[in-house]
Structures are given as C-alpha cells and as structure tokens.
Design a protein that fits this description.
Layout: H1 2-20, E1 22-23, H2 25-35, H3 37-57, E2 63-72, H4 82-89, H5 91-109, H6 114-121, H7 124-137, E3 144-157, H8 161-228, H9 233-268, E4 277-278, H10 297-303, H11 305-326, E5 331-342, E6 354-364, H12 372-439, H13 444-479
C-alpha cells in the first residue's frame, strides 16, 4: 500500500514538474532518482537478492516430492517355467495311470475298498482344475506396470553448507542495497553538476549580454566621436572587432546553455526539448554554504558504500570457503517414502494399487578424491584474501580522496575571495576608464582593456562560486554523506 501511494505521489509530482517546467535542485534530484535506469535495475537486483535469501532458507525445511511412472513390457515376468506350468495343469491326468495301477492292486488285495477307490478315481479331473488354478494364481501380469512414490527428505547435517548459503544470500542482499545506495549518490552528484553547470552558463550568458551592451554603447560613442573628428577610424574598427568577438562569445554561451539544459533534462527524465527554468537562475550571487573542511576518516569508512560493499564481499568469500569445505564433509539426511505399485506384491500379484511406507537415514561420506577438497578450499581462501586486500586498498584510496576533496574545498574558498576582490577592482577600474573616456583623457584601447578585465573578473567569480558548490558536493561524496 505504501509503495502504491509513493508511486502515485511521484507520478503526480513528475506531471506537475513537467507542466510547470520550473525545477529546484531538490526536484531535479527527485526526478533523476526516479527515472534513472541504472537505479531501477539495481532496485530489481535488491528484489532478486531478497528472494534468493528466502529460497536459501527453505533448505532448512523438509523437502517433499512426488514421482509417478508407467511402463509397458513386451513380456510379463513368470515365476514358473513352462515344464512346471504343464505339470501343474495336467496334474490329474499325469496321476491317472499310476493311480489305476495302484488301485487295481488295492482292490485285488482288499475287495471291500473298491467303492472308495472308484470315488477317488473320479476326483482326478479336479486335480487338473486345481493345477490350472495354481498356475493362474502365480501369473504376475507385469506387462502393464504402474508405480508412484511420495518422498520426504530432511537434511540433518550438510557440513555447514546450508548455513553458509544463508549467510551468503543475506550478505548478497545487503551488498545489492549498498550498490543501490552508491548508485544514488552517483546520480545525485551528476544531477548537481548538471544543475550548477546550467546556473553557471545562465550567469555567463547574462555577463556576455552585459559585456556586449557595454561594447555597443562604446561603439556608438566612438562612432559619434569619429563623426566629430576626435577619434580615428582605427578606434572604431577596434571596438567593432570586440563587438564581433562578444557576439560570438554570446552565441557559444547560448549553445552551451542549450546543451547543458538538455543534459539536465535527460538526467531528470524530461523531454529534451522541454523548456525548463531553474530556481537559482535569477539570483545575482549564488548562495554558498560554509563547509567545514575538517573531517573524520571513520565517518567516510562507515558511510562510503564502496567500503561497505567490499566488507560484504569479504564476508561472502569467507562463507564460500565454508561451502567449498562442506562439499567434502559427511552429509546426513532423513528419508521417508510412501510407495504404491500396480500390480502389487503384498498379496501375491494383484492388479490393484497397494503401497507401503519406509523411513531411513542416508549418510554420505567422501573417502578419497586425490586432494580435490584441499585444493578447492585453498583456492577459495585465496579469493577471500584478494577481497581483503581490495578492501585495504580501497581504504587507502578513500583516505587520499577525502584529503584531496578537503584541499579543493579550501582552495575554492580562497579563489572565491580573490575573485571577489578582483571583481571589485575591475568594476572600479571600468568606472574610472568610462569616466576618463567621456572626459576625453583616456584612449579607446584603455576602455576596451578595462571592459575585458571586467568581463574576466566576473567570469572568474562565477567559476569560483560554482567551484565552491561542486567541491562541497565532492567532499560530501567522498565522506559518503551526500543525500
């Protein structure tokens, strides 16, 4: 329910932003996080790792399976051979001759037994029938065989493999979350860079327009002076060259601004041709935050997703050592079955489904594999050591990265102070040059130099302000606190 509400809110927010085309830094971040395909992919990786962890837990539980089979045999199995079948089928007939001989001798010796012997001789055909019945009873009728079984398997001891797999999937889920978090920081940093690049170009466009306006005014004044004979055509040509250069610079800035806006639109998932206005475009001075360049490396180690990811990878490789070792340890499982067959053999051979259950314990003990288990375990330990070395290397690089980011923050602050002072001097110089030019005591070339210095000072201040913003972002990124 919460996910549905969040998605509904996000869609309505996106629609509102597109309709208004007015974006703040926070709204740009929100749109970029919502529309970035890499983040969507990493989020699905989190879901996949979550379900893999749930699947690994099921290995602790009993496993039930059902099996069914039908087989058509060309011949049926026989418990009697052909001679035995013939002997049983003709049992009475085969006994007739010996019985008559014995009966004749008995009647001769004991005439009184003649009626009894006569009645017994009449029972000989019944023996044939009894023999045939016995042959039919011993028929297996196994040309059509049906079989089925339901099996229960409960692992009792697998050498620690199940426990290791559960830990691996747990670490894998956390690893996917950390990678997603790292991807979010990368998207936020890219969005901030694109946002402040647009702000920088917007201000430089205003600066280029102001510079062009100054040159056009100067060109008009010089043209009047040429007409009055107090200036030369060379002065006019010099000013016009600067005007052309200023127009070309303005064109380049406008093109760069259009491309920067397109990049920001692409990051935010907005149509590239959509006209957008940023919240900080109309600010004369870009608001700056006072960032403390002092830092604690333990904060970076705790917050950087790269460190946490490598720590989790180290744990995963350690558990892989246990999995590899478990493959060469004894395993014990409880087995239970219920089996049915047709024909059944529990009451002679009957064409009925009848079954039975059985319970047992299965033990598998590896005896000799020519050292395969030792070699695989050593290889797994080597991979675990590699992950540990990678973690140590990452810590050293992050320490260097944080120090570099802090140094750049200080350097950007110093450049901003210097560029602000230079801008004040350049404005004062331009004011004096303009007044002197109007009074006729300063040449046109001096005014052009003052205007160029004014342009350079303003441009450097804009760059310094953007650098302060970006270095703050880089420091937060290096400390893992960028949100």
């Amino acid at each position: 329910m919460k996910k549905v509400f969040f998605l509904t809110f996000l869609l309505s927010f996106t629609f509102t932003v597109k309709a208004q085309s007015f974006l703040s830094l926070d709204s740009c971040r929100a749109l970029a996080l919502a529309n970035n395909k890499d983040l969507l992919i990493s989020n699905e990786k989190i879901n996949a790792a979550h379900y893999q962890r749930k699947a690994a837990f099921t290995n602790y539980l009993p496993n039930f399976s059902a099996t069914g089979a039908y087989m058509r045999n060309q011949k049926e199995f026989s418990l009697l051979n052909n001679d035995q079948k013939a002997a049983l089928s003709g049992l009475g007939t085969n006994l007739a001759v010996p019985f008559q001989q014995a009966a004749h001798e008995i009647v001769t010796a004991y005439p009184d037994l003649a009626p009894l012997i006569s009645s017994l001789s009449g029972a000989l055909p019944a023996l044939d029938q009894a023999g045939n019945s016995l042959v039919d009873a011993l028929r297996t009728d196994t040309r059509n065989v049906y079989a089925g079984a339901i099996t229960l398997t409960q692992p009792l001891y697998m050498g620690g493999k199940i426990r290791a797999y559960n830990k691996i999937t747990k670490y894998a889920e956390e690893l996917a979350q950390e990678q997603h978090h790292g991807g979010m920081q990368e998207v936020i940093m890219s969005t901030d860079q694109a946002y402040w690049q647009v702000i920088s170009l917007v201000n430089k466009k205003k600066l280029a327009e102001g510079y062009l306006k100054l040159l056009l005014q100067l060109d008009s004044d010089v043209e009047k002076m040429i007409n009055e004979g107090v200036a030369t055509k060379a002065d006019g040509l010099s000013v016009r060259v600067k005007v052309n250069e200023a127009e070309m610079t303005l064109t380049k800035v406008e093109d760069g601004l259009s491309l920067a806006r397109m990049l920001l639109c692409q990051l935010c998932g907005i149509d590239l041709s959509s006209p957008i206005t940023l919240a900080d475009e109309n600010m004369e001075d870009i608001p700056l935050l006072t960032t403390d360049p002092h830092f604690d490396l333990s904060t970076a180690y705790e917050n950087r997703p790269e460190i946490r990811s490598l720590e989790l990878a180290t744990q995963i490789y350690k558990q892989k050592v246990n999995v590899t070792r478990a493959e060469h340890l004894p395993s014990i499982a409880l087995m239970g079955n219920y089996m049915v067959t047709n024909p059944s053999v529990f009451n002679s051979f009957e064409n009925k489904f009848k079954g039975m259950w059985n319970v047992g314990v299965m033990v598998q003990i590896p005896i000799w594999h020519w050292g395969e288990g030792i070699y695989k375990t050593r290889a797994a330990k080597a991979e675990a050591r590699i992950a540990q070395y990678q973690l140590q290397d990452a810590r050293e690089k992050i320490e260097l990265q944080v120090n570099q980011a802090a140094f750049k923050v200080k350097e950007a602050g110093k450049k901003l102070v210097m560029s602000s002072k230079n801008m004040e001097k350049a404005e004062e110089n331009l004011r004096y040059a303009t007044l002197g030019f109007k009074e006729g005591v300063i040449a046109t070339s001096n005014v052009l130099e003052a205007q160029t210095a004014w342009l350079s000072a303003h441009s450097e201040k804009i760059d310094a302000q953007i650098d302060v913003k970006l270095t703050e972002i880089y420091l937060k990124k290096s400390l893992g606190t960028l949100k």
